[in-house]
Amino acid sequence: MGIWSAPVNYISTRGAAPRLGFEDVLLTGLARDGGLYVPDAWPSLPADAPAALAGLSYADLTARVLEPFAGPTLGPAVLGDLTRKAYAPFHHAAVAPLGQIDRNLWLLELFHGPTLAFKDYALQLLGGLFDHVLAKRGERLTIVGATSGDTGSAAIEAVRGRDNIDIFMLHPHGRVSDVQRRQMTTVDAANVFNIAIDGTFDDCQDIVKALFGDLGFRDRVHLSAVNSINFARIAGQIAYYVAAATALGGGTGRPVTFAVPTGNFGNVFAAHVARAMGLPVGRLIIGSNANDILHRFFKSGAMETRAVVPTLSPSMDIQISSNFERLLFDLLDRDGAALTQVMADFRAAGTFAVSPAQHDRATTLFASHRLDDAGTLAEIARVHGDTGRLIDPHTAVAVAAARALGDPAAGPVVALASAHPAKFPDAVKQATGVHPDLPPWLADLHERPEHATPLPADAGAVRTFILAHAALTRSAA
Fold first, then answer.
1. Residues 198 and 336 grouped into a single domain
2. Of 85, 119, 136, 423, catalytic
3. Cβ contacts of residue 248 below 8 Å, gap of 6+?
4. Which of 106, 179, 242, 332 has its CA 20 to 30 A from that of 471?
């Protein structure tokens, strides 16, 4: 018997797409009306569930967390098999261990997967989910995604060599770290296509949304997504919040505060979902770098795009936070028509504002902190000096946010260590004088040949490339 209420169905934030079950949401990604899928109601976690989850392996805990989201077509036995396979390649027995760095301040280490970043935790699972559902249905998919650094390598690693999937991953040329780029471009697999876009991450993300909006093209290549616009990604990330809260006393109901470095709002939204389901979570603190559109929203109630500024934490160099639409949907009382109008105005003017009451609701749910590059280097140096640990720049943003806004007296404070320091060696060495080494299985990364196609920031050019290389269209030619 599961620990949750009945399984959910999914609705679009814009209200005009059909209601779907989990398998169809997994394969669809973005809703056909341009919205994002969310559960029609948040599952309810019984008060004693954290205690019931204590002692489970990370894989088994994840399977239990997924039950209301993936059921009833994917039952506990299938989910357990998929999660155990997903986390078997991880390089720590606990999968997502906690490390203490100060009095009641903890790091949730989310860099023990094959590509050394938190994206592995959902995407290794998604690879297996895709395989299972596609094989059952006898179908094939074309995945198109945009990455600011870590999603691309994690998604490619998850689906490389799979028989029923082609993946086309867009990254902003020259705006990801050398290690991040090479983790994508050195993968030599017939179903993997890297595209280097002459533009920013937001340009890449806009192209992906434009391709999903072209329904004829979308149907022709059976388009799907691995970005966090796919709710299955969000569901896969909920588990590590549950695991951390359970390990730090969630069974007693003591709330845990999480500080999350975020640009696209997906990772912290997963924590918001966990809290909405009843996990004892206190504050959710958003860590922003100089591209602080989220921080400015929570301070003012206005969302306003600005030019993207390159920083030491490039995975957060974003000015359009796709997943914020899911929170805005709830702030607008799940009114799809109202949200559609707000998003149209935002696209046209680059700005929108919520009402004072809606802003008050948002700030009861989230706090935010901004850290520039100088502060990022200082935090990396501070953690190294105090503990001997090396942390990456994104983790540094989270730790600084936790120190600034967390209240250790109210319960444990957990900062998400979202990437291995070796993914950003220049910044880490600049801060500490120590060059972080890649783990042995990636030691030859800089010697491997790269494969990528440069393209302009133009949806038409990307569409033409996909049509020329996707197996579905090649076989139809």
1. no
2. 119
3. 98, 106, 254, 256, 412, 414
4. 179
55 contacts 35 by C-beta, under 8 angstroms: no
C-alpha distances (whole Å) from 328 to each of 14, 291, 373 are 11, 20, 29
Low-confidence ranges of the chain (pLDDT < 70): 1-6, 47, 250-253, 474-477
Question: Contact, 261 vs 418, CB < 8 A?
Answer: yes
Q: Domain span at residue 203?
A: 113-227+444-477
pLDDT at residue 476, rounded to an integer? 58
Residues 342 and 258 sit within 8 Å (Cβ to Cβ): no
Structure tokens at 3: 């620990």
In the prediction, which pLDDT does 150 show? 83
Residues 321, 294: Cα–Cα separation, whole Å: 8
Sequence-distant (6+) residues with CB within 8 A of 219 are none
pLDDT at 288: 97
In terms of domains, do 367 and 468 share one?
A: no
Same domain, 348 and 415: yes
Using alpha carbons only, how large is the chain's radius of gyration in Å? 21
Which residues contact residue 46 at a Cβ distance below 8 angstroms, ignoring those fewer than 6 apart? 3, 4, 278
Q: What is the pLDDT of residue 342?
A: 97
Q: What pLDDT does residue 5 have?
A: 57
Q: And the tokens for 269? A: 């939204």
Determine, yes or no, domain membership for 334: yes
Number of domains in the chain: 2
Say how far apart CA 265 and CA 372 lie, in whole Å. Answer: 19
Residues 150 and 247 in one domain: no
Distance CA 70, CA 79 (A): 8
pLDDT for 1 equals 37
Q: Is 119 a catalytic residue?
A: yes
Vertex 454 angle, CA 266 and 164, to 5°? 60
Q: Which pLDDT does position 473 carry in this prediction?
A: 80
The CATH number that applies at residue 126 is: 3.40.50.1100
